[in-house]
Amino acid sequence: MMENQTNSGIREILNKVPAVTLTFWVIKILSTTVGETGADYLAVNAGLGQGLTSAIMAIFLTIALGKQLVSKTYTPWIYWLTVVLVSIVGTQITDLLTDKLGVSLYISTTIFAIGLAIIFMVWYTIERTLSIHEITTSRRELFYWSAILCTFALGTAAGDLATEALSLGFSIGAIAFGAMILASYLLFRLGGNPVLTFWIGYILTRPFGAALGDLLTQSKTYGGLGMGAMWTSVLFLSVIIILVGTAQFTISTKVINPQFSE
After folding, report:
1. Contact between 60 and 233 (Cβ < 8 Å)
2. What is d(CA 94, CA 117) in angstroms, rounded to the nearest whole number?
3. If you write DSSP's letter for every residue of 167-218 in order, what string do you get?
């Protein structure tokens, strides 16, 4: 971690957000699906209930996020563990509002959308950038993780709104959100603002992951494939571990043997 200070007194850090590559998007989508299926498994199948599941995951998230914030460089396993836990907690926030407090999905989607807009507005007003390639101060990193948590809660609400309240179903919902993600990528390739198209794509991966998770886990009676929350979570977590482990190994090898990166 760099020892010099910014003019505002905020500690400068090395950018701790991974490069936006195909692997980044694959892990992101898998983690969003795990957030959906993992939260459902713990709350329903494991019998923990939403309240206890939320409390346990919130504690784990606090620990992981604390480790992420104090780390000196981008460390794949810490970063992606935090993302997975944020995904689960974000899902639980929406589920608690919907199932326990009876808040309409229309209202929760609107609230989270406004909340995310406020985070972005304050972030940009203070830092003059929303680029994830410039997360170089502790304050920017706090803005970043606040936005990430809100995108997961918003994506869960929007996904449930589309597939359940609007009766699109899991298959059509997954296809619709997947098409919008593709559209944001094409917009980027055609010269669209890279920061704007990134955040649009990032937000959309959450409802896409939620719809995909429901499609895989729900019984065929309800339009799903009947894989179940446990097996879907295990499968996707296994792929995440392999990809993150490979990234961690690559970074560790470069640190030990700098010639490896040349």
Report:
1. no
2. 17
3. --HHHHHHHHHHHHHHHHHHHHHTT--HHHHHHHHHHHHHHHHHHHHHHHHS
Query: For every one of its 262 residues, what pLDDT tens digit does the chain have, with 9 covering 90 and above?
Result: 333 434 444 555 668 889 899 999 999 999 888 877 887 788 887 888 888 888 899 999 999 999 999 988 889 999 999 999 998 898 888 888 988 899 999 999 999 999 999 999 999 999 999 999 888 889 999 999 999 999 999 988 888 888 888 888 888 988 999 999 999 999 999 999 999 999 999 999 988 987 888 788 877 777 778 887 788 888 889 999 999 999 999 887 765 554 444 4
Distance between CA atoms of residues 227 and 254, nearest Å: 39
Structure tokens at 15: 């950018």
DSSP for the chain reads ----B-TTSPBB----S---SHHHHHHHHHHHHHHHHHHHIIIIIS--HHHHHHHHHHHHHHHHHHHHHH-SS--HHHHHHHHHHHHHHHHHHHHIIIIIS---HHHHHHHHHHHHHHHHHHHHHHHS---GGG--BHHHHHHHHHHHHHHHHHHHHHHHIIIIIT--HHHHHHHHHHHHHHHHHHHHHTT--HHHHHHHHHHHHHHHHHHHHHHHHS-GGGTS----HHHHHHHHHHHHHHHHHHHHHHHHHHHH-GGGG-
What global pTM score does this model have? 0.85
What is the four-CA torsion angle of 211, 131, 143, 63, rounded to 10 degrees?
70
Pairwise CA distance, residues 33 & 156, whole Å: 10
